[in-house]
């Protein structure tokens, strides 16, 4: 029987963004993205939940030390995203929109590169209290 356990770390960051498609005119961007297309940007208080799944180490009882996970999220994610303009201050959304979906995928990829492949990883990102996304699915 599997002894896999999921451990979670919650973090938050504040960031500004604008959702628009540069290939479209303002009218179409307004129609699709509404107030999220404000050229002067707008902000969200993002809540981030990182889930790591694996078997507890027999010597420590830890799946992964949550202090190490916390430091990793700080260094790999929050340093890039917190109090930043996601369109202008980060390199991640030059060719894509900083939607919750795309931000979640970027965060997953940043963390996946640093977390031992023996662990499964899943990221949940709340853009508002009621709007949230998860990547990857079915973990
Ligand atoms: N599939 C997606 N839809 C929307 C996204 C997104 O990232 N993925 N993003 C937005 C806006 O950026 C933003 O989330 C909308 O914010 P807001 O208008 O404040 O949202 P609500 O009015 O629904 O606020 P609640 O507090 O959640 O009620 C839009 N769509
Ligand atoms: Zn928004």
Automatic annotation (TrEMBL):
GO molecular function: 6-carboxytetrahydropterin synthase activity; metal ion binding
Documented EC number(s): 4.-.-.-
Known catalytic reactions: 7,8-dihydroneopterin 3'-triphosphate + H2O = 6-carboxy-5,6,7,8-tetrahydropterin + triphosphate + acetaldehyde + 2 H(+)
Cofactor comment text: Binds 1 zinc ion per subunit.
InterPro entries for the chain: 6-PTP_synth/QueD, 6-PTP_synth/QueD_sf
Keyword entries, A-Z: Lyase, Metal-binding, Queuosine biosynthesis, Zinc
Protein name as it appears in the record: 6-carboxy-5,6,7,8-tetrahydropterin synthase
Species this chain originates from: Pseudobacter ginsenosidimutans
Upper classification of the organism: Bacteria, Pseudomonadati, Bacteroidota, Chitinophagia, Chitinophagales
């Amino acid at each position: 029987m599997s002894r896999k356990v999921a451990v979670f770390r919650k973090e938050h960051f504040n960031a500004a963004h604008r959702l628009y498609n540069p290939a479209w005119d303002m009218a179409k961007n307004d129609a699709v993205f509404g107030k999220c297309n404000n050229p002067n940007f707008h902000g969200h208080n993002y809540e981030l939940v990182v889930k790591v799944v694996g078997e507890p180490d027999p010597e420590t009882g830890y799946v992964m030390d949550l202090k190490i996970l916390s430091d990793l999220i700080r260094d790999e994610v929050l340093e890039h995203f917190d109090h930043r303009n996601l369109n202008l201050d980060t390199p991640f959304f030059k060719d894509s929109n900083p939607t919750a979906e795309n931000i979640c995928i970027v965060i997953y990829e940043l963390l996946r590169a640093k977390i031992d492949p023996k662990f499964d990883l899943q990221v949940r990102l709340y853009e508002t209290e009621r709007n949230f996304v998860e990547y990857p699915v079915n973990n």
